[in-house]
Backbone:
């Protein structure tokens, strides 16, 4: 019976902040060990990263296809691959590892095209391979608590959703023409690397997924207005949404809203109550029954539902943040993989991480938003 | 040279909360005295109100047309009338007083139809009569501070607006059929009394006006989704907006958002900075320059601009609220009327209160939102 | 049966902000009318104030003793006097009016010496005259709600108190020698006018009273450290307190704490729960049961207890501030005086305003704090 | 030239939450590896922990003295030991490792007696061994930013300090007699294990250290009132403090304050400005210049000073919490140890972690607080 896992990584070399977050997250519970990688298309960086993590040099690959094949062939090959590379390589990398029978833990968005996303799902289904799309905010304990409360009917039927994800860090790009190549996040503004959208793809997709995770609601259609402000891709997006069942809502994502650092705020309104979660203060949840005072739920207290509390690490009032949300993604993922390897039956609860269906929904949402905006802001099916 | 004013009131009898707010607001500076009224269509209530305020009984009128004529004919007739009655009588009452040469201080929304609004403006212009539409949130010192900062270019060019006005008090009306007649605010849900909209008309119109007051921007078009939830009029509205000049934004108004008491929040984003004002904590203003820390401006401090500070009454940290915002509406109005009566020249600054142009803009906004929603949520010119 | 009252004022001329607050507060319910005054020791200012309020010129007095006698002698004399003058005249003015049989509504602190305070109480008791000491924060609806919840046992037995009143406005006085005469509030730093303490007397006394009002607890002893920073009186004070019954706590008052405008925050901790009120956001109350989420109570909601709700004017979410707290002080006071005049029996609930016992407690507290600090910060009986 | 470190741990077996936090923190940068341990006095637990971390079984010790000797004797022996055991063993364990020449990273409080603390310092000094006392809140980026701003004179001379650390989790212990043995944290209430104080020792000591770290000020004397509420040790403490140089302040620590989870709040007031940090929202810092608006500094922004920013891992608005603060403690510690091992010169900046002087100051503070309270709350030298 296996108790430990080994994994490989594509992308995420030493200077890429998200790679480090994945490695810390995967290692949080000392169950998974980094054993192989293809960290960068720059060979020097790739080697340097492998050396820093003291990997066997033959398991540091210059080519991800070679890596997929070689690791699949080893008796001690990796149990899964983490894809922490830019958006445009998600699809081919994921496909390569799936085809070689290796489970995939992939950054979001899953890929560019709906057809690609569905292809990945088909392969994974055929081979029976687990796949996690890293909508990492779902790793937050209080996001899970929101989901549990809504599932239990605490707020009644959802009637309205108001969610936003606001940042200010690209405000200087406004009106300055095509500067896709000269800043740190420049790849995000380059359609060839980032896909059809910058702002909706990068952060708007978190709105869509977090709302879906909390409520279980599917988006039906969207009216979107994207502002490029002279760039190739969008920096700002305001959207009206309609869910299956008829509930309406608003999604706003922006990278030009001064005063907002990383402001993902989700408010779900129901017939009996409401729930609000603010990513920058993630250890609390505002929970209100109609006619009653707003309550501030704290992670770590006895009243938190068991399914959410299962992911809580520290006593109440001791902040857990982004690393711990990532760790929770890997907690669920690693445990599920161990069970699978050990031949244990996986329950729905074991699979509490976003999967290819969520990844497909995300691609559909991004595509619909871009399409709506290009058509002048008309209602577009998701 | 006159130093005091007398005014009359239509509507606002003893049991109407808004009437009392007007009377306290008008009296705050001890310049204006209530001298006449037609407080209620119920003769007993009308008389009781006149007696409570110790009015001359012959100046308590059963009919507002009679009041307009009689007061216009008296040597000591009222200097202006306050209209604090339900929406459907704003137009005929305002018209009656204007036609008798009496300035009008009218609750919002101004009236139901654009043509009515334009007619009132035509009469007022012809007779040279001042007219205030009581968008009372513009009376807040920190709303004025926001306006001044934006005028001075503090936040650069406005590129995005995110404003909402959320309440929960009608959540129990959802799915309960037509209950327009059986609750306190039932008239607001009755189209004959409230007009084409409940939620957009009552509170959404404050969003439109507060944004316009702060930024000077005009709405160009709107896409709106109104939810009636089984009532005759809307209880919830999500809107995308476009301003002249091209800036986009989102307006959300709702009376079914549990956990929100009277949540008017306005956020204006510019190329150089941003400003946020929250009505429930009205004595502060969040002001941010791009790349810099958010600053919390407090009313009453020396750094507040003179035009806003001119309306500040109490030292910093001593909360001023809704009554004081009303008082500020009357401060500007009363001072302007005294200047006019005394033959002094009125400057733009003297007229710092919403006028008939603002009232017309409000009616146009409500009409466009309703029209857009009825057409399935398409872009509609304002 | 009388329905209206008339009152006079000592102090509070046109340029004194607190005088205006009293006049607006007294007039909020249109029951009490200003009819006489001795507004300033400066005759010109005194007359100007009387003229502005259109008083009968013979009822504008240059001397408060003359005023007390003359008003007592008039058939239409004032029903009560409001003392809005600096601290040093509270005692002689209050005494003069009490001796002439006129009820007194007096600013805090009541007076300088315990003996003076007890003398005022003796006179008022002998003559059966109502007396209100204007600890105006007790006029806040949510302070009353705190009192009701604590009375009802919601938080169990009080075990700890943490209360502070922090301002920054005198920070520039630090280390600049005796500047008692050259700033707006200079009288507060002059022992002859302000008494034994500036900071504890002006704002620390509000801590003591608000805690006493909420909890019903009496202070037993205090250890205080007052910092004068080169001024004649204190600008900063940190205190440990012990209540009768054994509960401990901390009181901090300061006028040199940068970043704090008018920060009165009271936190009462009990064996079963806790309550927190913050003056700068006065329409809410934080209420927590042990082991449960903190709840944010809003003024105006149905769950507010009737005794507190009786003082609520506006719907929930419509901020009431300092003027409304003053208005509530006068609501209770005016109603009690009308009942008394009309020969009705007054209940304890009718007398929901701080009286001479509270005033005496305040003087005792200030004296004990100053005495403790002078003795090097030792425990001193209150 | 060494690039990696190995460490051992005393205490912190699998079921002790703090052990896991240390292990994650030490491993955050993939520089230090757990190689030896004496995790529990329970042999089974000790072995289980060693096995989980896949340690060489001969390096899992039943006895910490044996571990110190054996590891000191190995060529590949540990580079330092982490002490994550209860308070009462800090001293003997630290002494054993120091005497064997092994650097120590020790949980706070350092030990029970001042003499013990000074003995540890004498040994460490004689042997030239680094020693970190894990006042982990100093690992927060924004605590470091506060320190830098104060060092740079941003708030002028410190004149007043108001700091508190409030929790509710022991409120049920009130009045229930000696229950030292029956709850999770029972050892904290047992003087034999926890020392002279529970509440001041456990959390009050963090107040003392965080204030000292931010300001550089030394405590001179304290007046303390500790409440045991029927327990053997204190559950609540209110203290007045005086710093060398004359500034005064208040420290409050409590484990019975309902509504407070882990509320360490530090407010430092100076002649020119003020700084406030709240542990439960650790990524921001409130910074105010006198007369100016309060500013909300966010970790990760360009305006953060380089010395603080050096410890920032994630982009602004991505919360870092307790694990990351621990990681920062280890970042500084691990880097300093590598430099030392590699014979590089260590600067003051390299030693940015609390050392034995800080540990001694902590023991002195706890002793003085307990002594003051036992003497009836009199001023006691620290």
Residues:
């Amino acid at each position: 019976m296996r108790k430990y896992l080994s994994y490989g990584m594509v992308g995420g070399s030493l200077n890429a902040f998200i790679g480090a977050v994945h490695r810390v997250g995967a290692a949080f519970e000392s169950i998974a060990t980094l054993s192989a990688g293809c960290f960068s298309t720059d060979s020097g960086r790739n080697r340097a990263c492998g050396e820093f993590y003291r990997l066997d040099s033959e398991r540091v690959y210059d080519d991800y296809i070679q890596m997929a094949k070689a690791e699949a062939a080893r008796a001690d090959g990796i149990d899964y691959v983490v894809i922490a590379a830019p958006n445009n390589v998600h699809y081919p990398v994921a496909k390569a590892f799936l085809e070689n029978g290796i489970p995939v833990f992939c950054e979001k968005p899953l890929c560019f095209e709906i057809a690609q996303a569905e292809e990945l799902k088909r392969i994974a289904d055929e081979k029976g391979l687990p796949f996690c799309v890293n909508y990492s905010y779902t790793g937050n304990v209080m996001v899970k608590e929101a989901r549990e409360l809504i599932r239990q009917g605490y707020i009644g039927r959802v009637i309205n959703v108001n969610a936003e994800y606001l940042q200010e860090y690209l405000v200087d790009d406004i009106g300055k023409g095509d500067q896709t190549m000269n800043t740190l996040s420049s790849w995000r503004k380059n359609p060839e690397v980032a896909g059809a959208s910058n702002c909706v793809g990068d952060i708007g997709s978190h709105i869509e997924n977090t709302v879906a995770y909390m409520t279980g609601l599917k988006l039906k259609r969207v009216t979107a207005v994207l502002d490029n402000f002279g760039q190739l891709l969008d920096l700002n997006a305001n959207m009206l949404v309609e869910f299956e069942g008829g509930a309406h809502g608003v999604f706003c994502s922006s990278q030009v809203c001064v005063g907002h650092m990383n402001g993902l705020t989700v408010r779900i309104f129901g017939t009996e109550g409401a729930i609000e979660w603010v990513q920058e203060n993630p250890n609390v949840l505002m929970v209100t029954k109609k006619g009653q005072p707003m309550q501030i739920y704290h992670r770590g207290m006895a009243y938190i539902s068991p399914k959410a509390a299962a992911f809580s690490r520290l006593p109440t009032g001791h902040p857990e943040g982004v690393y711990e949300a990532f760790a929770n993604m890997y907690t669920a993922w690693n445990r599920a993989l161990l069970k699978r390897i050990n031949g244990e039956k996986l329950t729905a609860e074991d699979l509490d991480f976003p999967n290819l269906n969520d990844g497909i929904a995300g691609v559909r949402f991004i595509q619909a938003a871009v399409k709506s905006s290009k058509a002048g802001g008309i209602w577009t099916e998701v």
Summary: The mean pLDDT of chain B is 96. The two ends of chain B are 44 Å apart (CA to CA). Chain B has two domains: 5-129, 142-314+364-381. The CA atoms of residues 178 and 232 of chain B lie 6 Å apart.
